[in-house]
């Protein structure tokens, strides 16, 4: 399966999530790429849209290699990829120091993206966590743990593409995973998109502003 762009992926994913329309859903998008996907889902389901702000903790000499991830909140959630951390023989305080730097970036993005918009409560609702794809799952796992603490009635992870072993692993952290395609020999998320450009802050803000102006439809 190949998606034209993130909006196309969001529309296809929304069709698979239609069954949750009457379960009081809230879409929670992971910036940046997940916002484009999440906006399409929230529009299709006529439900609220919010963000979960997570930052990957990269390896010292390989920033794209996820040692773990951190998500903001009253008590920041840190998830460590123990296998990677052990293989790299990292200093004991490396993750904590890296997490502090990433939390500063999370705070900047929250001010920039969300301004003073109220967050929809999740208690008793179906929380649908959305990204544009998953590779290792460290970021998604941190986000799922943080969302679970807000007591949704049901927690769903929804992505266009993810490797099957990652889907199986993350299924333990939520009630259901909806992944449209789960290819063997995964490679990279961008392989499954014709347009997988790097989204910038202006694009994310424009999408969120447009979503905020769109009235929700009754379920």
TrEMBL record:
Keyword set, alphabetical order: Glycosyltransferase, Transferase
Presence of keyword rRNA-binding: no
Source organism, top-level taxon: Bacteria
Pfam families linked: Pribosyltran (PF00156)
Record keyword Transferase present: yes
InterPro entries the record matches: PRTase-like, PRTase_dom
Record domain Phosphoribosyltransferase: where: 79-177
One GO MF term attached to the UniProt entry: glycosyltransferase activity
Protein name (record): Phosphoribosyltransferase
């Amino acid at each position: 399966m190949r998606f034209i762009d993130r909006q196309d992926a969001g529309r296809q994913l929304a069709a698979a999530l239609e069954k949750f329309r009457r379960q009081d859903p809230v879409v929670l998008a992971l910036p940046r790429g997940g916002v484009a996907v999440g906006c399409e889902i929230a529009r299709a389901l006529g439900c609220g849209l919010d963000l979960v702000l997570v930052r990957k903790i990269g390896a010292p000499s390989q920033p794209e290699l996820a040692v773990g991830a951190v998500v903001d909140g009253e008590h920041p959630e840190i998830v460590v990829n123990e296998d990677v951390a052990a293989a790299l023989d990292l200093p004991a305080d490396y993750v904590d120091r890296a997490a502090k730097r990433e939390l500063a970036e999370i705070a900047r993005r929250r001010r920039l993206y969300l301004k003073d918009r109220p967050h929809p409560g999740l208690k008793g609702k179906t929380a649908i966590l959305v990204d544009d794809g998953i590779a290792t799952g460290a970021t998604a796992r941190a986000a799922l743990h943080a969302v679970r603490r807000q007591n949704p009635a049901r927690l769903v992870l929804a992505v266009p593409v993810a490797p099957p072993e990652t889907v199986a692993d993350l299924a333990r952290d939520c009630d259901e995973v909806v992944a449209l395609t789960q290819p063997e020999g995964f490679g990279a998320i961008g392989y499954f998109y014709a347009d997988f450009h790097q989204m910038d802050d202006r694009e994310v803000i424009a999408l969120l502003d447009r979503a905020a102006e769109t009235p929700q439809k009754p379920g």
